[in-house]
Amino acid sequence: MSGGFYKMWTADTWKEFEGKRLSRWIEILNTSLLRNHSSPNATSGGSTEKKEMFFFGDKVSYADFAVLAILEGLIDEFGLSNLLQKHAALSTFYKQMSSRESVRKIWALQKPSNRSKWWPYAGGQIQASIEKSIAQLRAAE
């Protein structure tokens, strides 16, 4: 392959990435969501369950769906739901967005029951190395 930097992951490189860069970006998303959410409950640390949370204004936008796609990939593909445990606003956002009827319908069409059908799109050696690294770290916990 040409045109970029490709590397296989190890448990050590994944642990460093998850602990530093990935956790930092999750924090940035959570902070941005709180900053842009108009509910006083969200910024005061109170309950964020009642009003829908969006990244910009009071209506869903492309940015909301983009963040949902990233979170869904991390959670569904790599089993990283623990990333949201420390970030109540982002966790609420994920639950609210993923429970939308339109999202459930599209995921029902897109997500195959047989994961091997995804192989042509996401399943090469790099992804395998990430999955192996995560599994090794989880087994060691």
Largest sheet data: none
Number of strands: 0
Helicity level: 55-70%
How many whole angstroms does the radius of gyration measure?
A: 17 Å
How many DSSP H or I helices? 6
Distance between the termini: 35 Å
Low-confidence stretches: 39-49
Q: Helices and strands, in N-to-C order?
A: HHHHHH
Output the structural class: mainly alpha
What integer is the average pLDDT? 80
Strand content is under 5%
Shape estimate: globular
How is the topology of this model organized?
Blueprint: H1 11-36, H2 40-44, H3 62-77, H4 88-98, H5 101-110, H6 125-140
What does the model show?
The chain has helices spanning 11-36, 40-44, 62-77, 88-98, 101-110, 125-140. The radius of gyration is 17 Å and the shape is globular. The chain starts with 10 loop residues before the first helix and ends with a helix. The longest helix has 26 residues, at 11-36. With 141 residues, it is an all-alpha fold. It is built from 6 helices and no strands. Residues 39-49 have low confidence and may be disordered.
